[in-house]
Write a structure and sequence with these properties.
The chain has helices at residues 2-36, 115-122, and strands at residues 46-56, 60-69, 74-82, 87-95. The longest helix is centred in the first third of the chain and has 35 residues, at 2-36. The chain is globular. The chain is an alpha+beta fold. The protein has one domain (2-122).
Length: 123
């Protein structure tokens, strides 16, 4: 019986690992663009990711990250990649004490299960 359950569990773990790599890749890209565009943040400034949301509808991928910065500030970094137009957009907003900013649009849900993402980001 445990053999039949091992396959789906391994498949689920593999899917979760791919999702985390996917999120880390987009976060790295968003930070690269933010630095190039002079938005006042770079990967070296990030202490950790506090939370994230993501939406992938096939035409567009959108992600939002709440970041703790090394200097004590917090920031919200949003990344959008439009596959059809091959365009990327990055927005950065300072944050205060609020837990998360509101997600514009439908479908996104915040998660603070970001331990693996933080490990990937720092590697």
């Amino acid at each position: 019986m445990s053999e039949t359950n091992a396959g789906p569990m391994r498949s689920l773990m593999s899917a979760l690992a791919r999702a985390e790599v996917h999120e880390a890749t987009y976060l790295r890209r968003a930070l690269e663009i933010a630095e190039q565009d002079g938005l006042g943040i770079a990967r070296r400034d990030v202490q950790r990711v506090e939370a994230l949301w993501s939406i992938d509808d096939g035409d567009c991928t959108s992600l939002g990250f709440v970041l703790s910065l090394l200097d004590g500030r917090r920031a919200y970094l949003q990344y959008l990649f439009d596959f059809a137009d091959d365009e990327e957009e990055v927005e950065l907003q300072p944050m205060g004490e609020e837990l998360y900013p509101a997600i514009v649009g439908a479908g996104g849900k915040w998660t603070d299960d970001v331990c693996e993402l933080n490990q990937l980001l720092m590697s």
